[in-house]
Amino acid sequence: MGLWVQSDGEGLMRTIRGRIFTSLIIVMVCSVLTTVFLFSRLIDGMLMDQARNQLKLQMTKAIDIIEGGDVGDLSTEDLELRFRDRMFYADFFVVDANDKIIAAGDDNKEGQTIHVPMSPRNHFFTLDGQKMMYTHQKLDHGLRIIIYTPMDILKQISGRVLRVSFISIIISFCVIFIVGLWFVWKTTRPLQQLKEAVSKFHPSYRSLGIPQGDTSEIGQLINTFSSMSGRIQKQHQQQIEFLQNVSHELRTPLMSIQGYASAVKDQVVSVELGLNVVTAESERLIQMVDRLLQLTRMETVQEEWKLTEVDVLEMMEHVHQLMAPAAAERHIRTSLDGDALEMAVPAEQIFQVAMNFMQNAVRYASTEVRLTLKGAPGGFCICVDDDGPGVHVHERGSVFDRYYTGKAGITGIGLAICKQIADRLEAVITCSESSLGGARFSFEYKRGDRQG
């Protein structure tokens, strides 16, 4: 599954998959060790409590036997200790006031002297090098009876329980490990696929797309990369189309300049006519280059736009007057409607938005273009309507994209500049259907919007 070897030669700990996998192992090992430790303590405690209770029960039984006869009637077979499904026998001895054993389950211990502490808190003593758990009780005539069992028996029972428990834990560990391994692989596999796709991605290769992700966080990340790759490919395609369009637009005036310069040189046309054409085409070239430089500057340089107190309606009248000759040339009727409105605005940028709107409308209109200035709370709205073919609803979100050109478009820069200005001013720029039947372009500006 690629857990141990990485294609670029990086170590295990430098991969996300390796880190998750290693963390899973560490957590599981720590959990198993902690569980075994706590469980062993719990089992030992339970067995100790059970052993004490068993010894106390056998003490009661032993005293009943002794009281019903004498000390010699008691034997180890009478002292049964049961732990789960196993049975053992406790041992005993009776000592006199001098700690001398006078009776015992093992006859070899009779006559020996042994000291067993009678503290109520001490339940252990050592006999023949082995640790014993015991309980004791006073008898008549200064005698005492001690019933005990070796701790080795309890350890055997505890070990047996722990072995079974440990096997269960190991099986659980293996199951969790396999599930965790599958989960890590399932989780990180999309990242590996994303890495491979990104490494092969090129804006020109449309067939090599980013795979689609699911609804998880990683899936959303993959979808984000997929969306980003789509935008990059679209941007790349737009750049190619833009370069082609600009090259064509620049080539036309250059060819005109070259042609008329040659014609003047060959005295085919008059010098005056040739100079007029060269001057007009040169101005057209300068205007196109200036727009390109302006768009590039707006996207890369955060210059400050100064606010100027102006009559916005008077500015719109100036726009209307400048566009009148171009509209008359195409037999387009233009009108202006609005009320006087004085406000501190970035005048140059607002003027440019209105000019671009009007140029676009005049280029597409059939017979009429209408420029409207509407006052709005804290600002104003500039609307330009035309009766042209309009903009299809699916294309309205793209008309402000850089390099987007319609059927009568030239470079796809004018409306992109308007969008850049609107974004910088946090204004609202929209394209919708006009009441004249064509397109409406709106620019809504508020006094509180950010400038610069």
What does this structure look like?
This protein has 452 residues and is an alpha+beta fold. Among the domains are: 220-300, Helix Hairpins, CATH 1.10.287.130; 308-446, Histidine kinase-like ATPase, C-terminal domain (Heat Shock Protein 90), CATH 3.30.565. The protein contains 7 helices and 14 strands. It has helices at 16-68, 151-200, 217-265, 271-300, 312-329, 347-364, 414-425; strands at 80-83, 86-89, 91-95, 101-104, 124-127, 130-138, 144-150, 308-311, 333-338, 342-345, 368-376, 379-386, 428-433, 439-446. Strands 4-3-7-6-5 form a 5-stranded antiparallel sheet. A 5-stranded mixed sheet has the order 9-11-12-14-13. A hairpin with a 2-residue loop joins strand 1 (80-83) and strand 2. Helix 1 runs antiparallel to helix 2 (151-200) and helix 2 (151-200) packs parallel to helix 3. The longest helix is centred in the first third of the chain and has 53 residues, at 16-68. The two termini are 53 Å apart. Mean pLDDT is 79; it is low at 1-13.
